[in-house]
Amino acid sequence: MKKEPLIEFVDVTKSFDGRTILDRVSFKIFEGEVSTLIGLSGSGKSVTLKHIVGLLKPDSGRILYRGTPIDRMSKKEWNATLARFSYMFQNNALFDSMTVFDNIALPLRRTTSMKNKEIANKVMARIEQTELTDVARKYPAELSGGMQKRTALARALVTEPQIVLFDEPTTGQDPIRRNAILSMVAQYQKKFGFTAVLISHDIPDVFFISNRVLALHDKKIVFQGSPENFETFDHPFMTELIHSLEKLQEELTGLYSKRQFKIRYQTDLVKRDTDGTYVVVLFKLADMDTIADQLGHRTSQQIIRTMGKFIDKHFGLVGAFSTRQAIDEFASLLPFSNREEAEHIMKNFIRDLQEHGLEKLSAVMRKAESRKECFEFTVLGGLARGQPQVELESIIEFARFDLRPIARLSCEREGNLK
């Protein structure tokens, strides 16, 4: 059965002062997904987002919501539709004269007839979910940049919207905070089930949370599809994008992006030795959602960063190259290797991880501001042998089937790490 789009642009054109910003733009956004709109600076991404919520109207073309053109909706229908949206602004748009609590409560006070007690309950629920309890009575100027972002996110979610639009939610953040915010968006999207539409420059990091990528280039949508398909997208836009973002290296871990990883695989193996073998070693950090809940998203991203650098340091010494395959998953490729050699390397890595790596991870956890309860953190590892004529993704999937616990970090009832 064909899936119907939640929001659809059909040949939307928009100009300002005779300058065309969007030229017959067409794309689809599907319910319950995270869709990310990417493009170079000044390409019209924010203009596109503002059309979705009616802040701007197209000069020509149509915008449909559940198949109905919004320009044909009655005022009552449009207001009902608009009530399902929420918008997280690029600069947070917090009111300096209001506390965190009052900033989050503002949409409920302005758009609903809820009583004060009901508003307070809803606001405190979002404050707790976004880990802002300790700063609820503080003002924005007293908060860190990350906490201001969380406040803006809590305000965007307090009305229980069906669709949340994020205009550059990670602008000005360092790699750890940036990935923490993206992780938070992904976690809350899963928890609350809203449809998310993001504008972001943070490639490839944002791909880890995206179901769908929309690429805006030269006033048109030149690509719409999965992040995996975008990695192999052959278009002049990719050349411009790669040039503007240098190597598309993942800043959080310093590892190859998935695109670089595949290019290195093609260059070092497929084109050089079609009869050789290699081994993919896969690592997965289990329980990351639980860690994020208990220690915070920033700590969870520090754990990912620490683990990525530890893997790269160890496997880089033996000629492997590595990438972050998913939010909590890493892949290292050992060229011209066999399973016996890889298992020996893996055995040494596990010993090093247990003797030194876990202590690095526990140090990150101990720096967390609070730990509400005891937790268990497990590292899984698996490997699979491949040949250049076999699809790399298939070998990675075989390694995924081989995943098993290789190290575990836990705490005693009183909270001491061991």
Blueprint (SSEs and pairs):
Elements: E1 7-16, E2 19-29, E3 34-38, H1 45-52, E4 60-65, E5 68-69, H2 75-82, E6 85-88, H3 100-111, H4 116-129, H5 145-157, E7 163-167, H6 175-192, E8 195-199, E9 212-217, E10 220-225, H7 227-231, H8 236-244, H9 258-270, E11 278-285, H10 288-295, H11 297-316, E12 321-326, E13 329-334, H12 339-366, E14 376-386, H13 392-401, E15 404-410
Parallel strand pairs: 3-8, 3-9, 6-7, 7-8
Antiparallel strand pairs: 1-2, 1-4, 4-5, 9-10, 11-13, 11-14, 12-13, 14-15
Helix pairs in contact: 3-4, 3-5, 4-5, 6-11, 10-11, 11-12
Strand order of the largest sheet: 6-7-8-3-9-10
Order of helices and strands: EEEHEEHEHHHEHEEEHHHEHHEEHEHE
CATH superfamily of the largest domain: P-loop containing nucleotide triphosphate hydrolases
Residue windows where pLDDT falls under 50 for at least 5 positions: 412-418
How many helical elements? Answer: 13
> Helix fraction?
25-40%
The largest sheet, given as strand count, sense and whether it forms a barrel, is:
6 strands, mixed
Quote the beta fraction: 15-25%
What fold name stands as the CATH topology of the largest domain?
Answer: Rossmann fold
* Number of extended strands: 15
Q: How many angstroms does the end-to-end distance come to? A: 51 Å
Give the overall shape, derived from the CA principal axes: globular
